[in-house]
Structure formats: structure tokens, C-alpha cells
Amino acid sequence: MAHKYVYLFSEGNAQMRELLGGKGANLAEMTNIGLPVPQGFTITTEACTQYYEDGREINPEIMAEINEYIVKMEGITGKKFGDKENPLLVSVRSGARASMPGMMDTILNLGLNEEVVEAIAEKSGNPRWAWDCYRRFIQMYSDVVMEVGKKYFEQLIDAMKAKKGVTQDVELTADDLKELAAQFKAEYKAKIGKDFPSDPKEQLMGAIKAVFRSWDNPRANVYRRDNDIPYSWGTAVNVQSMAFGNMGDDCGTGVAFTRDPATGAKGLFGEFLTNAQGEDVVAGVRTPMKIAEMEQKFPEAFDEFKKVCKILEDHYRDMQDMEFTVEHGKLFMLQTRNGKRTAQAALKIACDLVDEGMRTEEEAVLMIEPRNLDTLLHPQFDAKALKAATPIGKGLGASPGAACGKIVFTADDAEAWKARGEKVVLVRLETSPEDITGMKASQGILTVRGGMTSHAAVVARGMGTCCVSGCSEIIMDEENKKFTLSGKTFHEGDFISIDGSTGNIYDGIIPTVDASIAGEFGRIMGWADKYRTLQVRTNADTPRDAAKAVELGAEGIGLCRTEHMFFSDEQNHLICLLRRFQSFFQHPRFFLRCICCLVLLCKSFQYHLCSQHRGTLTTYHIVSCFFHCHDFFYCRNILCFPNDRPGPHQISAVYIRSDKCRLFRFVQRQDLFFVFQKNK
């Protein structure tokens, strides 16, 4: 039997994630449990791997199987590619086994050409919808498959809206959109040098190859490296029949979570747009309405959607992130996955799922991504300073935390400024996958467009980066690298502060303080202690580090770089002061010894160490530990973990390096004398 590279949604399940990718496996699972899913097929991750082995070509065997499944899909839907009476239109999406924000954008409405558009316009009696679908497809295909920048098409749209005196895309007429489609095709030919493809199968093969290519693009490579995702995994391709949310005011599209991804609070959370297609919500082209408002627009579809949300959360036993479309009042589910969440939300959701009987304590601990807990230790704005500050604007608090820095307007600038030691806040109209490296380099992200489920919001939450999205009050001038907010013009390099919890925006820098730990943190750590088999010691270089480690439950110090004790401001100021009086000392060796004595004794260099009994602190400090030999100086400190036996049993050496203080150089000596004093 030949190797199988393509599966109908009805042939897969959730356990086939490695083969079908996360999106394909979940589409298959939703199909199996009877949810309303537009049908299609998934091309496996193995086909992607084979594509690269074959020199970035789809081999004849895989090509034949794809064509076979196109026929099967036509049979299931009762529609055919390129047919004027009942044409099959599809979406093409990437779908790796792990969520990959840097992967290819979705292509919608694939299968359209001039003849098909005219046919569906006449058949539906809705020419505006038909031409809107076509101009969207031309723009998406040109940008995603042929890499003609979307900005060229956005400029044409803006020019058309200005010409017609409107501000929203939905205000353009069928004739306006038909004219735009012609302009888009002319732009495509000018950039590519050939006509826009009209054969649906040619369009589909181009889109499939683009998905495979996107696995190796720079954005995806950066994300894989940061998240330990192997290159060998490859990505799947999902080809799905279209459900249309842009056919009129009784249609719409949305993104929703079964719990708040920022706080973890239980309850439906998301956004919805009427007369729109899915990418409108994610891309932030229009600012969406809250998901609760969908109930007034489509009460029956909303009731069904709430039932679907419960079914999915009960089935996966985790918070779900879903995409859906309503076509003439009928609900269609396009995607579900375990939703990305902030560290605070992850702790609360894990605890709540245990309380609700959906997860065991051990499972709850395993649900927490250890690296994400680091975001709980990020600084927040100082409460007093924040109270005194007045916001100059407000967006949506898309990803919690506090960020302040210099304004930059492009991802490339964010990377360059960070490389030279600057802290920056990336300000964009909206972000897209190609901005991911700049987002990673930024302290925070501020966007003019988009909502809580926009690209900027989702990626920032996954990175643990502060983000404020959808501040429509900003008047942006990206070309000249400036924007206006509350009557003030901000230029590149000006300081700004943003609060990702409240969405507030502040002029200048607001001081920050260490973040406080959420109440669920202790509960999760208690479960971790209950089931773990390893002891936990900390990496602590200073008394402050050690005290914080004890507070967070460390049982000892496993690593201590003692030279860091010499780098505090107090010691540096003392050394600088004594250097000014160096001429008063006749012998340099005597001078070095005096400095050492004063540095060691002016501050007791206490090492806070945990005893074998957790939480009990004992302090040791060195009173004298120095020796001089010619123009060399060497110092040795001893760290003690107290136990029933007297005397030290761990030794660590320290020296003041010449690049930190030119007074001292290192020499290895063994004949040193140590004097200890114990403080109780």
C-alpha cells in the first residue's frame, strides 16, 4: 500500500497531531464529535518533510493524492472547482503540531476568477459580496504566495475610500470593489510580470507550496528556536471549504476563548464582527465588538455557540481558543485549540479545573509551562507613581505587565535599538507575522488597530510581553516615524509607558516595582512539592537573591558567584574614593590591603543560606580573608551550608577582575588564612 499523505477531516482524530498538525487534528476531532465544521482535507507534515527532501518540489505521488482528495471534497460538498453554477471555494491554512505565530497567513476564497465571480454574483443576488471575496483573495494570494507586500494593496484601498468619501471597507459598493479587484490584478502584474492565475488548481498548488515554504521562513525559524520546536517536524496544510461571514448583515465572524486568557476568569471571552471574514478580526482592520454583543445580532447562533464552547472545554479539559463564522444565521466552527494564556491566567485556570473536577492536581501542575512563570516576576508600575500619572490614551489591555522605553516604529528598528542597549516600545498600526523578531526585542507593544485576539495580542501573551492594542485615538504617520495622541506629537526615540493590564498609555517613564505573586502560585507550588522527587536549590549571588529564593520555596543554594558581591554601588563608591587618596600611601601593597579590609568590613557580605530545615535562615559572613603578594591580590570566600557537623563543606573562590577594578589582579594562592565569625 502506498504511503498516505492526505486525510479527510472524517479520517483523522486528535491523537494524530504529529501527522495532521494541531489544526488538522482538532478539525478532525470536531468533525468526529458532531460539531458543524466545513469539510475538507489535511496534507500531512510528512508531505512537508518530503517536499524539502525533493528539493522544494511536490513530487508526482503527493500531487496525485492531492488531486484525488480534491475530487473527494467535491463529492462531499456537491461543489466543483471552477464551476460556474456551483463553484467550490476553499481556505488554505498552515498547521504545525505546535502553534507557530510566525507561519503563513491564511488564504481565503481560493478558487475565484473573473468568470466565477460573475456567476456567483448573479446567482446570489449579492454582487458586493462576490467582488469583496475576489479582491480579498487577490490581495491575500499576492501577499502570502507571491510575496507582493500587502502595503501596496492597502494604499489602493485607502485611495478608493478617500475617493468615495468613506472610512470603512464595508461602505464601498460592488462597483468600487470590482474596480479595486482590477487595480489589484494590475498591481500584481506590475510586480510579478505575469497575469494573476485564474485556474483554481494552479492557485491551490501555489498556496500549498507557500505553506511548506513558510516552515523555513525567518520568522518561523526564530519562533522555533525560542520555543525548542524541531525543524524536522514540518507543517501540515489544511484545505477547507469556505463559510462566508461577509455575505451581509446576517453574517459575521469571531474569535473566542472559553475563559479570559489574560486573567483566567471563567466565562466566554472574545470578539465578533458582522459582515466580515475571519482575518478581519485577527488583523485588526476593523475594531471588533465584544462577543456578548453577538447575542443581540444572532440569538440562535449564539445559543448554539455557547453549547459548542462547553462541549469543547469538557472534551479537551482545558481552556479553548476558537474561530467561527456565522453564514446567514448558521454557525460554522473553523478551529479550536488549547488557548495561549498569561502566566497569571495559567495558574488560575489550572486551579479552577481541579476545583471543577476536570483535572487532577498532578495534571494541573503539568499544564503549567515553567518558562512562563518567569512573567510573574516581571516589574509592574509603582503604585504611587502610577496614581500620580495621567493617562494620555487608552487601548485594550491585551497582555499584562508594565513597559516603558523609547518609541520605535518598525521591527527592524526595534532589533537595532535593542542591540545597542536601548529599551524600546514598538508602536505599529497593526502587527503581522513578519514583525515577530521586533516584538521579541521590545519591552512592550502598542497598536492602533486590533483587539484582544489580534496578532499583536496573541503573540505578546505567548511571549509574556506587555501589549496594548486597538488605541484608535492615535493618529499614525509611520512614514515619518511619528504619531499624535491627546494633542501631542511623539517622535521616534521619545519615551512612553504602557500598562498591559488596564490598556492605559502614559507620556514619559513611570518607575516600576517587582511584581507580586498571585494567590494561585503558592497552591500550584504546593502541589509541585507534593509530587516532585527532586530537591530545589537556587542560583543566588547576593543576600537579596537568597532571601527571595527562600520566599519562593528554595531549599538551599546550588550556585553562588561570589564576585558579584563586589559589584554593588556601595563598594564601587568606596573604591573610587580611596583611589583619590592613593598618593598618601607610600607602598602600593599596603594600599591594596587597606582597600580590601575596608571593602570586606564596610558591608558584612552576609550569605543567607537555608538549613536542612526548610525556611530556617542562618547567616555567615567573612570578617577577614585577604592576602597580598607583590602587586597581586587574591581573596577567597567560603560558603557554608549549616548542618550538625561544624566547619565548611563547600568552597568558592572569588577575585576582583581587572576589567571591573584595575587595582587588583588575580593570582592562585593556597596559603591563605581564614577567620570566621558566626552571627545568630
Describe the structure.
The chain is α+β, with helices and mostly antiparallel strands. The protein is built from 22 helices and 31 strands. It has an eight-stranded mixed β-sheet. The protein has a five-stranded antiparallel β-sheet with strand order 1-2-5-3-4. Strands 8-7-6-9-10 form a five-stranded antiparallel β-sheet. Strand 6 and strand 7 form a beta hairpin. It is globular, with a radius of gyration of 30 Å. The C terminus is likely disordered.
What is the topological layout?
Layout: E1 6-8, H1 17-32, E2 40-43, H2 45-53, H3 60-77, E3 90-96, E4 107-110, H4 114-124, H5 127-144, H6 150-164, H7 174-192, H8 200-214, H9 218-227, E5 235-241, E6 252-259, E7 266-274, H10 278-283, E8 289-290, H11 294-297, H12 299-316, E9 320-327, E10 330-338, H13 343-355, H14 361-367, E11 380-381, H15 383-388, E12 393-394, E13 396-399, E14 402-408, H16 411-419, E15 424-428, H17 436-441, E16 444-447, H18 455-463, E17 466-469, E18 475-477, E19 482-485, E20 488-491, E21 495-499, E22 504-507, E23 512-513, H19 519-531, E24 538-539, H20 543-551, E25 557-559, H21 569-580, H22 588-602, E26 607-610, E27 617-624, E28 627-629, E29 632-639, E30 650-654, E31 675-679
Parallel strand pairs: 14-15, 15-16, 16-17, 24-25
Antiparallel strand pairs: 1-2, 2-5, 3-4, 3-5, 6-7, 6-9, 7-8, 9-10, 11-23, 12-22, 13-17, 14-21, 18-19, 19-20, 21-22, 26-27, 27-31, 28-29, 29-30
Helix pairs in contact: 4-5, 5-7, 6-7, 13-14, 13-19, 14-19, 21-22
